[in-house]
Amino acid sequence: MAISANHKTPDADGERHAHVIVIGAGLSGIAAAVKLRRGGITDFLVLEKADRVGGTWRENTYPGCAVDIPSPVYSFSFHPNPGWTRNFVGQPELLSYIEDTVDRFHLRPALRLNTELLEASWSEERRRWVLRTDRGRYVAQHVVFASGLLHEPVVPDLPGLDTFPGETFHSARWNHDVDLTGKRVAVIGTGCSAIQLIPEIQPLVDELHVFQRTAAWVLPRLDFPVPRPVRALFRAVPPAHRLFRAVCAAVMKGLGLVVRHPGAARLLTPLAKLFLRRQVPDPALRAQLTPDFTIGCKRLLLSNTYLPAMTRPNVRLLPHALTAVDGNQLIAADGRRAEVDVIVFGSGFEMRHPPIAERIRCRDGRLLSEVWKTRSPEAYRATTLPSVPNAYLLLGPNIVMYHSLLALAEAQLDYVVDAIRTARAHRIDALEIRPQPFRAYNDEVQRGLSTTVYNTGGCSSVYLDEHGKNFVTWPWTVKRLRSDLARFDIENYDTTPAEH
């Protein structure tokens, strides 16, 4: 039986040891802890740099912040929530659900909050990971990196930004001390976060200037309150809740199938244009809000309130990127200017150069970020890497699709837990994916992506890196992903047996 790491104290060298260490206590990190324990692996710790769990749902507190897929799908498989108050719940309710999961599964003793990973290095001599943190060293045989995709906000490097006299902040670091009432506000970007916050702040501000680099396709968000009697039914009759969740999942799978294939995705264009025409009567504004690429090439946005907000008298759309700042004047690519008091960046997150890669050293001493800079981010089954033994990336390269990221991370965790159990059962100190299956797998993924709307839809998206390579999305179905991750394929790995 494994010894619980929850009560371990530092050894004489000041190191803390655990069989498995999870980095990050967001949704995927919490799922990792539960899945490890359910797999009989109790000797684990979860390191979290913040003072509470929650990940992106702790960090993002902007007005209107909510899930962009149905809540029943965006839930742990092992802890379905029959009490969601809406079909698309807001950030406070989701964060409360994460906290409740931690307590329900008694995970707090395994948490190490306020502990930031500075560098993870593989020790060939010890056959262990040595993790340097701001709270001392940790040593583990296996490490699960659950730092998430939406982690590091991107603020563009704009000439003159340092001359702006007002307040500036990113949507993911919302400054609640700034009262926007009666202010002239600029929102930079029209992505997932921006379309949620724009309708919320529009009634408060005097002027709202929206800088739009590229128009986005918007479809209705099928949101509705879940009445109290229905929630009571879901609690009393779990099969009813499972059916509702299955229906939501089926809708997501169907939408994912449609937007993946260019021909099918174009079938949604008339619906999107009808929705746009009904919500934006002005032809000139409507033309500026109409994308010129195939639906699905960029992430599809769901909102019932964004397009109407853009028609309000105090809103001005600048259909160009923000290129420079001159004092309190913001300059668009076409030369137009907007004089504002506050800048809100809805400019997304760092995906092309994942920050966690700057903290992982491969077996040869190179940073993972250096490896990925030359070849683009790649991983085997989005999870493991050559020269990085006993390490597992959750939501790694080429796993994203129009589906719940949590469900995708859970599929990976089935693979990860099987890998750790296999290593323990066969007395293996190190597992490392071999170069040949790694290369074959990634080449197959790229061939699969070559005909998808992500690559052929005619847009420049965050899915493509500076080399034009798609390192984000998955080309096939959820079913295939789960099948690929259902069993740890040890035959594709080099193994180092334990010495004793």
From TrEMBL:
Pfam families: Pyr_redox_3 (PF13738). GO terms for molecular function: monooxygenase activity. Keywords: Monooxygenase, Oxidoreductase. InterPro entries: FAD-bind_Monooxygenase_sf, FAD/NAD-bd_sf. Transmembrane segments: none annotated. Gene3D superfamilies: FAD/NAD(P)-binding domain. PANTHER family: FAD_NAD(P)-BINDING DOMAIN-CONTAINING PROTEIN-RELATED (PTHR42877:SF4), L-ORNITHINE N(5)-MONOOXYGENASE-RELATED (PTHR42877). This is Cyclohexanone monooxygenase. It comes from Streptomyces fumanus. The gene is hapE.
